[in-house]
Fold this sequence. Notes:
Helices cover about 65% and strands about 0% of the residues. By secondary structure, the chain is mainly α. The protein folds into two domains: about 5-410, no CATH class; about 425-555, Serine Threonine Protein Phosphatase 5, Tetratricopeptide repeat, CATH 1.25.40.
Amino acid sequence: MSKRGKVLEDVLIAEESRPETVRPRAIKPSWFGFAVFAGALVLALTLYWSSIKAPFLFDDIGLSFYQPTFPHESLKAWLLGVRPLLFLTYWLSYQISGRETWSYHMIGIVIHAINSSLAFVLFRRILTLNAVEHRRALVCALIGATIFLVHPLQSEAVAYIAGRSELVCGLFTLAALVVFCNAGSDGITGKRAAVVMVLYGCAVLSKEQAAVLPAVLFGLDMALWRRTAAQAFRRGIWLYAPLLAAGALAVAGVAFVLTSSTTAGFRVPGMHWYEYLFTQFRIWLWYLRLAILPVGQNADYDVPLSHTFTEHGAALAALVLTGAAVWITRARFRYPILFCGSLLFAALLLPTSSVVPLQDLAAERRMYLPLAGLVLVLLEYLTRVQRPELPGTLLGAYVIFCCILTQQRSAVWASDIALWTDVTHTAPIKVRGHTHLAYAYMRAGRCHDAVNAAGRAPSIVQDDAMFMAVLGQAYACDHRLPEAIDAYERAVLIGPSVGRMLALASVYRQANRLADAQVMERQALQYPPRDSYDETMLRALNSFRARSTSSFSEKRNE
């Protein structure tokens, strides 16, 4: 008999020998479920307590409700964007504590605990569907949910206010998966399909990447119940027919949003879609390494772009991923839990790590939901091991290791100075880390420390126009005008822009070099504004001129 025939025979024997009594039973709310959530919440609070009062930082400052002109009293204003359910949770935080951040972090921690509890239920049901003995399924699901809860890769999504989009999207996605996997082998009822559809809509309205959920559900349908595509569609007609329409609308909506964005989509400056794809082959392996050994984490990774298929090992990474995908697909009947986990991991990571460019090539928060798939891969092994003593000891040590690292990452996210100090240590030649660290010191009123921190930047960073502009601002903040003028002049020489020229003109005025300031302002107005900094400096110039004109008119009237 051929090898393929032997595998098929093994599969058929396994199917015939599956216990008829093992069926996915609905797990009703009970003391055990509440105990799981309570334990998850206590552990999450313990791990993330150091960041509970962390300020708004990094992209938090770019959130619409952070701006002073935002109409905070209008609920409608909070819900007008593309992620209304996410902003509804922000609105709830604002009602509790205004601009004090403790409630923002507290709600994020609570959602993470709920998600970990949902992951426990999901893992248990998938194991039960694959005929894993009840007690072992329970223990393995608890282990998996614990790893999902305490893994340091989750820290960016939990401790970072702007990372809440992953938490809220994860909440509805995991809930939809739980409801879906609780269906019987006879198919999905109309009532269950309606619940899944509502949860799917909520997930998409929390973050656009949830648009791939229909593909995840369809793949799980075929994997968990050993169905062909036609059988899965026929038995789940109540779900898949409306999902096709809803999924098409969701994808169209995402495409429309991407057409006007410069930080996501095919208009990201300096990057082609194929370059992003080549780079993501490497990033997938990078994420896998961080999931297994979460050391060397960073809030702002310095990743070189693969301009060609062979640059920086992109081809080798693609070969490894393709080989793994082929092997997992061929072994899907022999290792069904591994296949389900790989499907979850790949499908949930694809929206951010494929052909649609994002400004940041890698971000830990993108692994929040895909990590659940990798945990399922581990559970495949745990359900098969015969002597669990050694694996249990190793897993216990790994969980403790993760807890220590997560507490450390929580402390890093506790302040912007701590965050950007960590970034500059881990990615020393990336400009953004050094500029944000200088800004952090200046916001804290520590202008001298800002100058010193900028002065420690490598020479390659000091050749950047943005960095030199920030250094000029730091010198000006420290009342060192000659050094500020030198830094701003170098910034304008390296990369002339409206904002840098107007900043230099402002320092000229402070140094009483009025003629030079007027010349620089005239030159600045010859350039078109390219970003929000340019527009802010233009508004400041117009405001200054308006005040000057008003003051001159008042003196003349006197």
